[in-house]
Amino acid sequence: MNKVYIYDTTLRDGSQSEGVNFSIEDKILITQRLDEFGIDYIEAGWPGSNPKDSFYFEKIKHIPLKHAKIVAFGSTRKKNLKADENPQLKSLLKAQTPAITIFGKSWDYHVFDAINTTLDENLSMIYDSIYFLKKEGVEVIFDAEHFFDGFKSNKDYAIKSLKAAFDGGADWVVLCDTNGGTLTFEIEYILEEVFEVFKGKNIGIHAHNDSECAVANSLMAVHKGCRQVHGTINGIGERTGNANLCSIIPALQLKMGFEVVKEDSLRTLTDLAKFVSEISNVPLPKNMPYVGVSAFTHKAGVHASAVSKKTDMYEHIKPELVGNSRKITISDMSGKSNILYKLREIGLKVEENSPEIIKLVEYIKNLEKEGYVFEAADASLELLLKRYFGIVKDYFELDFYRIDVLHRNSEHLSEATVRLKINDITQHTAALGNGPVNALDNALRKALIDVYPSLGSLELIDYKVRIVNETEGTSAKVRVLIESTDGVRTWGTVGISQNVIDASWIALVDSISFKLLKDEEENL
Questions:
Q1: 438, 414 in Cβ contact below 8 A?
Q2: Which residue among 309, 339, 370 closes a domain?
Q3: How far is Cα 194 from Cα 186, in angstroms, rounded to an integer?
Q4: What are the residue numbers of the active site?
Q5: Could you give the CA distance from residue 463 to residue 484 in angstroms, rounded to a whole number?
Q6: Is 266 found in the same domain as 308?
Q7: Whether residues 181 and 310 fall in one domain
Q8: What Å distances lie between residue 113 and 9, 105, 146, CA to CA?
């Protein structure tokens, strides 16, 4: 089995993504997680360019890593300046990393108009810089910036830039689609020509996603002979991002037969994607291949029926291979198979031909007609199914709630009063909030906390309101979706009403009931 080396640039290229700003602690945590996963190279930043990166390289020296090589990143020497006199190259060596990556120009347009020098001087800059670094005993990787655009503009010169790097002693030469505009068929024919010139050389690919081809281009490059792939976790990066390693790694290993990471590591890929998503504060798209929550979700009844028999009928890989899981959603497109699958998933055994199943399917479809959606409300769905079969108790009974909106000294406050019955004991409480729903949530939990102390860990983390039948104007129904967590689990609930407060109440009650149900089941 051939080895493909994965080069992660989440901490440098990824940090250039709009809205991403890693602290030193963030960078250390991500480094350790990438190393544990089995990434071969971790490009961590540009020493000397800013205090944060310089401090990171100083700190990472004292943290033992199991597998990955830390890489310092920089550029070739400046024009008309000797390599051993270049402060930037010296700062790369000062970082004391086992590998160094430098980029240089391979597009004649950039040579003339960006760095304003001659073609020969640019080749000398590449050669001299690599030769200088190699004399110090480090592994040197050369990023041929804008290589594919350069090849299309001046093929002979682009090839000369690669030759200068190899002549200087580069261990790897990486072809960069810096503007991300190269299409996959172009990658194929250009690499065929490159490998005719550089047979047996270590060549890699560094793709950007501006044409939505970064993953495809990277896979094609490996198919044509590249053995180092650059990218970022979740594809974060400047503009539209870099090649997404969360798609590249499983494709290489599971579909193309290359050795990339250990099998056990691959099973943690989804967790790695979520981890970087949280630290980078970039939400993980639900529809992201392999690791997204919807990557193995089946909505249509015919799909659910098929995967309940043979999963590969509608799944290209087994989700557990990348640490993800299958999900069958319930909607107006659902059939009996979806309901049966969901019932089995939550531990309810019902005969396939039971008349109750037919009634349940119709009941759920009628709820969907009213505006209910259960795809993002897994907790409400589980409660509905268990209530239907009479196996969920009512944890409390509402007598009434009232909400007052107060305006005082230019300040807006809401006060909610709730009276409910718990085990024949009446609780009557009031609470303030920064809005009516927040006040209602506070009052409800205040009434319940003495009886159900575990609710202290419950937190609402998202709240969405959607008009269901827009043509009805102000009398239209609204759908409220609430996402909650207790620090261990995360779940969604839904409420429908013509009154947004009532819809919110329904979703709030389901959120609390689901939490209490799960606590009860764990204590059985």
A1: yes
A2: 370
A3: 12
A4: 303
A5: 9
A6: no
A7: no
A8: 27, 11, 14
CB within 8 Å of 400: residues ≥ 6 apart: 418, 419
Q: How far apart are CA 14 and CA 3, in angstroms?
A: 25
Tell whether 480 is covered by a domain.
no
pTM attached to this predicted model: 0.73
Domain membership of residue 335 as a residue range: 297-370
pLDDT in tens, 291-330: 998 888 776 555 555 555 666 666 788 999 999 887 666 6
CA distance 484 to 489: 8
Listed in sequence order, the DSSP H helices in 281-417 are 301-309, 336-345, 355-370, 378-388
- Residue 18 falls within a domain, yes or no? yes
What separation, in Å, do the N-terminal and C-terminal C-alpha atoms of the chain show?
49
Checking if the pLDDT of 375 tops 60, the result is yes
Are residues 211 and 132 part of one domain?
yes
Separation of alpha carbons 386 and 520, rounded Å: 14
Query: Same domain for 262 and 145?
Result: yes
CATH number, domain containing residue 157? 3.20.20.70
Of the candidates 91, 95, 87, which has an alpha carbon nearest to the alpha carbon of residue 70? 95
Q: What is the mean predicted confidence (pLDDT) over 271-279? A: 91
What does the radius of gyration of the chain's CA atoms come to, in whole angstroms?
Answer: 29
Are 238 and 307 within one domain? no
Poorest-pLDDT segment among 27-36, 250-259, 306-315, 416-425? 306-315
Q: Are strands 490-497 and 203-207 parallel, antiparallel or unpaired?
A: unpaired
Query: 204 in the Ramachandran plot: left (φ > 0), alpha (ψ -120 to 50) or beta?
Result: beta
Confidence band of 413 (pLDDT split at 50, 70, 90): confident
Strand-strand pairing, 228-231 and 297-298: unpaired
Q: Are strands 41-45 and 327-328 parallel, antiparallel or unpaired?
A: unpaired
- CB count within 10 Å of CB 218 equals 30
The predicted-structure confidence for 123-154, as pLDDT tens digits, reads as follows 999 999 999 999 999 999 999 999 999 999 99
- Residues 270-291 have a mean pLDDT of 91
Q: Kindly state whether residues 251 and 301 are assigned to the same domain.
A: no
pLDDT band at 335 (very low <50, low <70, confident <90, very high): low
